[in-house]
From TrEMBL:
Keywords: Arginine metabolism, Hydrolase, Manganese, Metal-binding. InterPro entries: Arginase, Ureohydrolase, Ureohydrolase_dom_sf. Its EC number is 3.5.3.1. PROSITE patterns: ARGINASE_2. It comes from Adhaeribacter terrigena. The keyword Acetylation does not apply. The keyword Amino-acid biosynthesis does not apply. This is Arginase.
Length: 320
């Protein structure tokens, strides 16, 4: 399928638990075990990573490895923008969720004048900044980077000047300034967040489809409502973190959370979303096979990935 490009990003610099760099290989093993030809159907490219710095001392406690994450996000952004330049759909398979900031930057670099909507399917809101983070793990800051919002109202940290320098540089990757408006962000199944993140969600009235609403309305209606919520957007990016699944399905991820999606619900949801012609990019993140002796997480994730891609290929006029 020539109009879908797999972009492999093995960086796990933003995670608190090691092992997400192996997630893509775990997906490939799950693919082989399923007897699928998925990874031979599409052209792929691997973005360079700096995971070797994890063996060095971290110098930035409120934004761990931010200097190397900046380099990685620039590479992701350039690769995503180039994929659009060649008229292809970027389907990103990444390690930790900080990489999504590079994907969003790449979309905006390619389409700076288009209004971008984001559907964030995740257990976590990922809207911390170096000023609010309790951990310093940058996979919890992806959306703050995209929104260009430090949340100084809830400031609890005093980042070092060098950290501030790199943080401000990260917010300029792709294009300077906000790449996303708060009203163009939709959460699905976010259920684990700290007080500063809750402040942002309430301040901006960010829509969050939670467990009870999802089960009451059903997945097809949730997908329709999420897309309708972003009706003013020209383009939509869908980011799927495997910890959006209930923890009984997602043991092989760094931060599993109870009361989430089933595998079948995730398949139906993602497949429905990518049918919308405005969806320009899909990303899957945070598979960590070191936490999962049976590779069950990757097998579940591959089911979701294959179903979603088949729906996308059908939309793009290819053969499933």
């Amino acid at each position: 399928m020539k109009n879908v490009k797999l972009i492999e990003v093995k960086s796990e610099l933003g995670a608190g638990t090691r092992g997400a760099s192996l997630g893509i290989d775990a997906l490939k093993i799950a693919c082989m075990d399923a007897g699928s030809n998925y990874f031979t159907r599409f052209n792929s490219i691997e973005v360079p990573n700096d995971n070797y710095v994890l063996f060095d001392k971290n110098l930035f406690p409120s934004a761990k490895y931010i200097d190397s994450i900046l380099v990685t996000l620039k590479s992701i952004s350039a690769t995503v923008a180039q994929t659009f330049h060649f008229g292809m759909f970027p389907l990103v398979l990444a390690g930790d969720h900080s990489n999504a900031a590079g994907t969003i930057a790449g979309i905006k670099a390619a389409y700076p004048n288009s209004r971008l909507g984001v559907i964030w399917i995740d257990a976590h809101s990922d809207i911390h900044s170096p000023y609010t983070t309790p951990s310093g793990n940058m996979h919890g800051m992806s959306l703050a980077m995209a929104l260009n919002d430090d949340n100084l109202d809830c400031r609890v940290n005093e980042p070092e000047p060098e950290t501030v320098f790199f943080w401000n540089a990260i917010k300029k990757v792709g294009i300077p300034g906000p790449k996303l408006l708060p009203e163009d962000l939709v959460y699905i199944m976010v259920r684990s967040y700290e007080v500063p993140e809750e402040h942002q969600m309430k301040k901006y009235n960010i829509k969050n489809f939670q467990f009870d609403e999802v089960n009451q309305k059903g997945i097809p209606q949730i997908a329709n409502e999420a897309l309708e919520y972003l009706k003013e957007c020209d383009l939509i990016y869908v980011s799927f973190d495997v910890d959006s699944l209930d923890s009984k399905f997602s043991k092989g991820t760094g931060t599993p959370v109870e009361i989430g999606l089933t595998v079948e619900q995730a398949k139906v949801l993602c497949s429905a979303l990518v049918k919308d012609a405005r969806v320009c990019c899909f990303e899957m993140v945070e598979i960590n096979p070191t936490l999962d002796t049976e590779n069950t997480m990757a097998e579940n994730a591959f089911e979701i990935l294959e179903a979603t891609t088949n729906s996308l290929v059908e939309r793009l006029g290819g053969t499933v």
